[in-house]
Amino acid sequence: MITRLSNYFLKTLREDPAEAEAEVASHKLLVRAGYIRRQSPGVFAWLPLGLRVKGKLEQIVREEMAAAGAHEVHFPAMLPREMYEATGRWEEYGDALFRLQDRHGADHLLAPTHEEPFTLMVKDLVSSYKDLPLTLFQIQDKYRDEARPRAGLLRGREFTMKDAYSFDVTDEGLAESYQKQRDAYERIFTRLGLEYAIVSADAGAMGGSRSEEFLLPTEIGEDTFVRSAGGYAANVEAYVTPVPESLPIEGLPAPVVYDSPDTPTIDTLVAHTNAVLKREDGRAWTAADTLKHVVLAVTHVAGELAGEREIVVVGLPGDRDVDMKRAEVVFAGCDIEPATAADLAKHPGLLRGYIGAARVAADGSTTAVLGTESETGVRYLLDPRIVPGTSWVTGANVDEQHVAYLVAGRDFTADGIADLSDVRAGDPAPDGSGPIETARGMEIGHVFQLGRKYAEALGLKVLDQNGKLVTVTMGSYGIGVTRIMAVLAELNRDDRGLIWPRQVAPFDVHLVATGRDAGIFETAEELAGTLEAAGLDVLFDDRPKVSPGVKFGDAELIGVPRVVVVGRDAADGIAEVWDRATGEKSKVAIAEIAALLSK
Amino acid sequence: MITRLSNYFLKTLREDPAEAEAEVASHKLLVRAGYIRRQSPGVFAWLPLGLRVKGKLEQIVREEMAAAGAHEVHFPAMLPREMYEATGRWEEYGDALFRLQDRHGADHLLAPTHEEPFTLMVKDLVSSYKDLPLTLFQIQDKYRDEARPRAGLLRGREFTMKDAYSFDVTDEGLAESYQKQRDAYERIFTRLGLEYAIVSADAGAMGGSRSEEFLLPTEIGEDTFVRSAGGYAANVEAYVTPVPESLPIEGLPAPVVYDSPDTPTIDTLVAHTNAVLKREDGRAWTAADTLKHVVLAVTHVAGELAGEREIVVVGLPGDRDVDMKRAEVVFAGCDIEPATAADLAKHPGLLRGYIGAARVAADGSTTAVLGTESETGVRYLLDPRIVPGTSWVTGANVDEQHVAYLVAGRDFTADGIADLSDVRAGDPAPDGSGPIETARGMEIGHVFQLGRKYAEALGLKVLDQNGKLVTVTMGSYGIGVTRIMAVLAELNRDDRGLIWPRQVAPFDVHLVATGRDAGIFETAEELAGTLEAAGLDVLFDDRPKVSPGVKFGDAELIGVPRVVVVGRDAADGIAEVWDRATGEKSKVAIAEIAALLSK
């Protein structure tokens, strides 16, 4: 095919767009080069060039889905409320879900993902184990009402996704279906030349289910992940703090209460404690010796407890902070925020600034203050590092007093563990593969063993080999097609424009005719025909009255990887072939160009 | 490509679906044969077979759009309110528009058509006449909140449409761009084997604009259109009643008022009048001699008058009725309904059952009762047939009295014309090409010269050849892709299933292996390979344990036009080739089948 710029809907722009999304360099280039146009925050229209790249990406995804044995279907974007209510997601999605009513007052949503309708379709059409395993996929436009849509296609409110869902009778079957999609994702990213890390995205708390993210290591990524030299890799939310061994309690010093006025921070507390209390083993007190208490308000989003607001105290070493994303995993299904003054007012037992696990009597005996069995009745969770036999400096539950040598397992216990402290470089990998380092990444794929949650909620059962009805187990697998296009643009560019990898470039060759000599245009026209005959998709800049400088600038901005310039040397049968990526320019006999570029 | 039924997501159903859409035979077949599944009223999911047919249809449309010089783009379904407010469509669309708010309270809609964002995109990117003419199109999922979505894909709430928009500087340019799309539509329908009538869809009241519908003549169509043997064809809404010549008033009889109790209908009035009043020319009074008055309540939907409810009296011959669809054209931009008792109570001058144009005094002199200049002040519009010199039986504005010989132009005049009576077979074509007949049709395409309405509302101007800013003139052109698929299914079926035309059939050949003999399956397998090598797309029913009857039933239901059955005769190198449309079955040497089917 030959596409002539003299008759193509393409307007390159000199100025960067003013929209908020322009914070990302590739977005500016995609807009300036005429690939996309913004319609509203996080919502874009596709121009002819953009449609071409997107189409090529979709084709690669389709090929690998076919190779993985998945069947293509297509669901509507607008779906009725009921199916999402049955799984709890109508509420759980909160503000991120676009909801609407039809003229009869029936509720609908614009689907953020399609687990529910896929489950119901399989329930409708499949009744026996003989029809499984089955993996279905679609390439479809999805909706999420992001609070701050940013970075253009990287995080839009409307975006194209390939989502696949697998259906199996057995856990082993699910593991196989999962592996097939996982392998397909590896092939897709390899074909696109995308570096990726596969990281655990789930702590395994959901009963043996498994979830992994494909992260592209990049500074503009929104996710932080951790990895060890020994091969461990996980999303920060999925990092599991190794639990140290318990220590002997016998022989540990008894609690010592001391005055601690004017110690509003851990730093001031440590300095003050060092000043007034010499540590038994002679070394100085540090922040890691203190037990900090954070009061959280936890509100259930859905289910029977929906709307209920619970106050929870979390204890963690003073040198750590709560990581709210990790906290969201601990309190899945709930909204979390720091307790407000109003919350604390309802719990006079929680003495702001001096909250501690226990009250110490004059004789050194202790009474629990935190925990559902204690005097406050407030649920009390501890960082996994606070094992029995560890000794802490913490609040004494008396104004302007702290206590040292308060020993876990002797002076206090908790209602459970909350693994929500921040994760740091140097922390141990949970699999013993050494210390971890942290890195930024952008999620470009996600594979998830859902297990039976959706099938149970929606009643998807089939007859097994023994004629018994069993609940199906499912996986879900997503790739953001438009996000990947943005990632490719971000990774493949320079200050002059985009540099597409060949596999997704809008054209194979960008042919430029320069000058005013009719002979040059005739030669270029002939060459265009030869390239087309060689099976190449040609973008032909045949604009008669546009200067060479503008043509070259457009070619660099648009970013087709191979540019052929037919100019003054055409009379001698010579044209210039540019490699957009390396900037290399070489003079080539026109008669040889088709063969050179078809390689 | 070979697609094996042993490993394909296809479940045919024996039972008709229960959904309301199943009123249409083709919808039942599309569901039973595994092409689509209903998600909510008028909203469907696409199964692999359905996606194949839809994809082929889209490809045909794309090819013809390319041939017409149109460029493909793609807009989001969700668009911000503001642009549709600027053109008045945010309100005008009424309940048919899906509206929603995002988390920040900003209003959005799910677009029913995309005139606004296309206009704005061209405004953004085009500034000179040199870039015009330009025609852009997309194939995209649209939304309309139909009150009663029915007939499956024929009238859905989510549906796929090809919509194109042309941009020109001059009216002549628009006419050319319009013609190119119109020609492309003719080519598309011809390729699909669809019969069509091109009918005028607009009375021309909007200032020279032109609009035509492509209607498929069919009894299940929702539109009524009229046509003459002489070539006239129009939508009923677009039919313009020819205005008869005025008649001489001189010498016409003076008004005669007479008692008319118990005449609630035109029929009783005519019978009564014939009984009490002999007509001057000797013939009997008929319904066509009476002037009937209909009181309408007209409410402006948008603009400065939004919400204002006006009472309008329309006079039309007693043998005609108001056609509400034609009335909607007359009162474009307004909601119309029959006036209520409450409306009439506010206008005591309108005497229910005896409303007339004038009051007749004892001396025969008349006073206007209807019209903005009359004693009621109510706007009064007349059917175009009621020209000066026509004489009428009508209400006398006195309880239980009518008047005969009330003459238009002598005894009453109106504020204007309202061409909203029903159109009937035998009425004259407005172009003088003879009497019309009426027919039912289904709209399968619509081409529309929008003119400058949208460009003006959204400020789309370009510099013309003289460097002057001029407003662009536009056209819009739509084809319902999913509706056409339903139309094709409806037209091509029998009681056993679908019969797809080759151009859009999901596969080229449906190859069935029957029996339990492994040799048969091997032969079929080989044949599948040969057919694939010949470039044919093969659906291969290789299911090992399914009876021939079920396989044949599925083949007929699915409707691939050519079926090849490899069975007992395979040992002799013979298979059976079925023509699904004619039912013809012929024995063919297996070695010759590929050549036969590739023809």
Automatic annotation (TrEMBL), chains A, B:
<dbReference type="GO" id="GO:0004827">
    <property type="term" value="F:proline-tRNA ligase activity"/>
</dbReference>
<dbReference type="Pfam" id="PF03129">
    <property type="entry name" value="HGTP_anticodon"/>
</dbReference>
<dbReference type="GO" id="GO:0005829">
    <property type="term" value="C:cytosol"/>
</dbReference>
<keyword id="KW-0963">Cytoplasm</keyword>
<dbReference type="GO" id="GO:0006433">
    <property type="term" value="P:prolyl-tRNA aminoacylation"/>
</dbReference>
<dbReference type="InterPro" id="IPR045864">
    <property type="entry name" value="aa-tRNA-synth_II/BPL/LPL"/>
</dbReference>
<dbReference type="InterPro" id="IPR006195">
    <property type="entry name" value="aa-tRNA-synth_II"/>
</dbReference>
<dbReference type="Pfam" id="PF04073">
    <property type="entry name" value="tRNA_edit"/>
</dbReference>
<feature type="domain" description="Aminoacyl-transfer RNA synthetases class-II family profile">
    <location>
        <begin position="42"/>
        <end position="501"/>
    </location>
</feature>
<comment type="similarity">
    <text>Belongs to the class-II aminoacyl-tRNA synthetase family. ProS type 1 subfamily.</text>
</comment>
<dbReference type="InterPro" id="IPR033730">
    <property type="entry name" value="ProRS_core_prok"/>
</dbReference>
<dbReference type="InterPro" id="IPR007214">
    <property type="entry name" value="YbaK/aa-tRNA-synth-assoc-dom"/>
</dbReference>
<dbReference type="InterPro" id="IPR002314">
    <property type="entry name" value="aa-tRNA-synt_IIb"/>
</dbReference>
<keyword id="KW-0030">Aminoacyl-tRNA synthetase</keyword>
<dbReference type="InterPro" id="IPR004500">
    <property type="entry name" value="Pro-tRNA-synth_IIa_bac-type"/>
</dbReference>
<dbReference type="Pfam" id="PF00587">
    <property type="entry name" value="tRNA-synt_2b"/>
</dbReference>
<dbReference type="InterPro" id="IPR004154">
    <property type="entry name" value="Anticodon-bd"/>
</dbReference>
<dbReference type="InterPro" id="IPR036621">
    <property type="entry name" value="Anticodon-bd_dom_sf"/>
</dbReference>
<comment type="function">
    <text>Catalyzes the attachment of proline to tRNA(Pro) in a two-step reaction: proline is first activated by ATP to form Pro-AMP and then transferred to the acceptor end of tRNA(Pro). As ProRS can inadvertently accommodate and process non-cognate amino acids such as alanine and cysteine, to avoid such errors it has two additional distinct editing activities against alanine. One activity is designated as 'pretransfer' editing and involves the tRNA(Pro)-independent hydrolysis of activated Ala-AMP.</text>
</comment>
<dbReference type="GO" id="GO:0002161">
    <property type="term" value="F:aminoacyl-tRNA deacylase activity"/>
</dbReference>
<keyword id="KW-0067">ATP-binding</keyword>
<dbReference type="InterPro" id="IPR002316">
    <property type="entry name" value="Pro-tRNA-ligase_IIa"/>
</dbReference>
<dbReference type="GO" id="GO:0005524">
    <property type="term" value="F:ATP binding"/>
</dbReference>
<keyword id="KW-0547">Nucleotide-binding</keyword>
<comment type="subunit">
    <text>Homodimer.</text>
</comment>
<dbReference type="InterPro" id="IPR050062">
    <property type="entry name" value="Pro-tRNA_synthetase"/>
</dbReference>
<dbReference type="InterPro" id="IPR036754">
    <property type="entry name" value="YbaK/aa-tRNA-synt-asso_dom_sf"/>
</dbReference>
<keyword id="KW-0436">Ligase</keyword>
<dbReference type="InterPro" id="IPR023717">
    <property type="entry name" value="Pro-tRNA-Synthase_IIa_type1"/>
</dbReference>
<keyword id="KW-0648">Protein biosynthesis</keyword>
<protein>
    <recommendedName>
        <fullName>Proline--tRNA ligase</fullName>
        <ecNumber>6.1.1.15</ecNumber>
    </recommendedName>
</protein>
